[in-house]
Amino acid sequence: MASHSGALPARTGPIGSMNTDYHRIGVNAFLVIVLAHWAEHVTQAVQIYVMGWPVPEARGVLGLPFPWLVTSEWMHYGYALVMLAGLILLRKGFTGRARTWWNISLGIQAWHHLEHLLLLGQALTGLHLMGKPVPTSMIQLLVPRVELHLFYNAIVFAPMVVAMWLHRRPNETERAAMNCRCATVAA
């Protein structure tokens, strides 16, 4: 546990360091990855709903020069796995209310990851859910894929941002329990 002098506890390996000395760097690096992914989804939505592009042509930023990225279930699954891993690896650094919001994000991402695992399994086997012509997730049976992934990313991102905000601005109890230096200086 951190003392009021700001001393950090002894670390136990790379994950311990990631949640103490390097927590702020880890959280910020993770945020950059998440925002880059968000930019791809927002760009794709703009291409469809503002520019009027057909869905197969709306491939975001990276999908334009590399169209296979958009159709690669491996790439989508890989990102879902990176998100899940980031939320798990950085979790121990959060305390109190921030941990609660981080856990909400983690829970939603766990489901999102399972949906991508289902999509990847279908892509690898050629056996598609409900006889659909392409890999299809459970919720995609009700909501189109572009809109569904905008929604998933939003509901994972929103509690993650709340967690980061609260983590940087802890109350006294949370600050005393923190093992990192992420908190801003008290006013």
TrEMBL record:
Keyword vocabulary terms for this entry: Membrane, Transmembrane, Transmembrane helix
Protein name, entry field: Uncharacterized protein
UniProt source species: Streptosporangium roseum (strain ATCC 12428 / DSM 43021 / JCM 3005 / KCTC 9067 / NCIMB 10171 / NRRL 2505 / NI 9100)
Transmembrane portions of the chain: 74-90, 150-166
